[in-house]
C-alpha cells in the first residue's frame, strides 16, 4: 500500500511491513513504512496547500463535505470490505463504523455554524471587539488499528473543515481504508495536498511530532503511546490531544433487568472481538446479581457464531494479529493461577485454518491486583468483579487508572442519577453499555484514557483545530487623537 501525497499515490523504495488478512492468517499485501524524509515531503505538500485551502470559501468547503458524505455512504460496502479484509471485524460492524464516522462528516458539513466568531459592539465608547476562528496550520492525525475508518473520519474531517491541511498516519496493520478515504475526498473536490496519508511506524510518527511545520497532533491509541505522543508534541510546541486505552466497567444493580443486562454485556464485551476502546471488559455485579447473571451469559455465549467476517453468519471475527491472539489468550490461561475462575474458556475453541481466531471467555471472581483486571486486554474476555454494595462499585471504578466509558444498569432513577454525578469517567451510559456520544457532542475519556483537555470530534474539535483571534476596533476622528502613556481605560 502506497502513501497518498499531494493528490496522488506515492510509492517508492523503502522499508515495508506485512499486512495480514486476520481471517486466513496469510499476508495479503505490503505496506510502505515512511522514512522521516517521506514524511517531510508530505508535510511540505500540506504546508504548500495551506494558504489556498485556508482562503477557500466556507460554502465550497461545506459542499465538499456533503459530496464526500454521499460518496462514502453510497460506497460503504466497498469500504467495509476493505476494513474487514485487513481488520477482521464482521462486515456489518465495519459498515457500522463507517456510519458512525459519517455522523461527523455530517456535523462538519454545518461548518459555517461551527466556524462562526463573536462580536461585541461598544465594548468601550466607540470600540468594538470581535473574535474569529482561524486554522492552526498543518495537523498530524495518528490513528489506531481498531477503527481504520471511523477514527480517521473523526479527526481529518473536522481539521479540514476548519481550514487546516492534514497528514494522516493510519495504523500500519490495516492501512488501506485511509487511502480509500483520501481518494474519496479528492473525488469530492478536495484540492491536492490538503489531505495526505503516510504509512509507517515510530520513525514516521517521530518526524510528525518534531517537524516544526506541524502545528497540532491528534492521536488515538494505547495509553503508553498516547502519553509519549502528548509529551513529545508538547516539548516541540504543538497543541495535542492524545486518547489512550480503556478498561470499561458495567455495573449491574440488583434491581436491573437481568436479561437486558446480559444481552448488553454480551454485545458490548464481544462485539468486534472486544477490540473497541468502548468495549465493556469488566462486569461489576452488586449484591446477589452475579450467579443469575452468569447463567444468562453462559446461555448466550453458547449461541455465538465466530468466523470469517465476510460470512454473514459470523457475529465475531478474528483478532488483528497472531501476537494479539497470544497476548489475549495469555490473560485467560493465566487467570486461574491468580485466583480467578474461568467460567468459559475461549482459548479451547477450535477453528479451521491459520486465522487469528479465539473463542469468547468469561472470568469470574476477578479482583484488582490480577493482570486480567489491571491491564487492558483488548480482546473478547469479560471479567466479573463481585462487590457487595453500590459504594464499593463506585470506589472500584474511581480508583482505576482508565476512565474512558462506564455503564450502570438499574431501574432506579435515583441510583442512576447519583452514579452519573459521582463516577469519575468521561462517558457514562445509563442502561446503555457503549455510550459513544452522537456527533453533536464530543468524545473523550478522563485520566489515562486522554492526555490533553479537548475531546475529539463535534464542537470541541472545532476548538482544537482553530485558533481564536481577537480584534479590537476603533474609528476615532483625527481630532480625538492624543498621546497617553497610561494604561488604556474605557
Ligand atoms: P497503538 O498505540 O499500538 O498504535 C496507535 C498508533 O500509534 C498507530 O498509528 C501506530 O503506528 C502508532 N505507534 C505505535 N507504536 C508507536 C511508537 N512506539 N511510537 C510512535 N507511534 C507508535 O494502538 P493500537 O494497537 O493500534 O490500537 C489499540 C489501542 O487504541 C487500545 O489501547 C485502545 O483502547 C486504544 N483506542 C482508544 C480509543 C479512545 O477513544 N480512547 C479509541 C480507539 C482505540
How would you characterize the overall build of this protein?
The chain has two domains: 3-245 and 445-472, Aldehyde Dehydrogenase, Chain A, domain 1; 248-430, Aldehyde Dehydrogenase, Chain A, domain 2, CATH 3.40.309.10. Helix 7 (176-187) links the parallel strand 8 (165-169) and strand 9 (195-197). The chain is 38% helix and 23% strand. The strands form six sheets. The protein has a seven-stranded mixed beta sheet with strand order 14-15-16-13-12-18-19, sandwiched between helices. It is an alpha/beta fold and 490 residues long. The protein is globular. The structure holds nicotinamide-adenine-dinucleotide (NAD). Residues 142-147, 169, 171-172, 201-202, 205, 220-222, 225, 243-246, 277, 376, 378, 404, 445, 449 line the site of nicotinamide-adenine-dinucleotide.
Short description, anyone?
The chain is of the alpha/beta class and 490 residues long. The protein contains 16 helices and 22 strands.
List the keywords:
globular; Aldehyde Dehydrogenase, Chain A, domain 2; 22 strands; oxidoreductase; MeMal-semiAld_DH; alpha/beta; 2 domains; Aldehyde Dehydrogenase, Chain A, domain 1; 6-stranded mixed sheet; 7-stranded mixed sheet; single chain; 490 residues; binds nicotinamide-adenine-dinucleotide
What fraction of residues sit in β-strands? 15-25%
How many E-type strands? Answer: 22
| Helical stretch tally | 16
CATH architecture call of the largest domain: 3-Layer(aba) Sandwich
What binds here, in terms of ligands, is: nicotinamide-adenine-dinucleotide
Oligomeric state as shown: single chain
Averaged pLDDT: 97
Side by side, the strands of the main sheet go 14-15-16-13-12-18-19
Characterize the biggest β-sheet.
7 strands, mixed
Total domains, how many?
2
Helicity range: 25-40%
Low-confidence stretches: none
N- and C-termini, Cα separation? 62 Å
Domain Aldehyde dehydrogenase: 15-471
Pfam families: Aldedh
Protein name: methylmalonate-semialdehyde dehydrogenase (CoA acylating)
EC number: 1.2.1.27
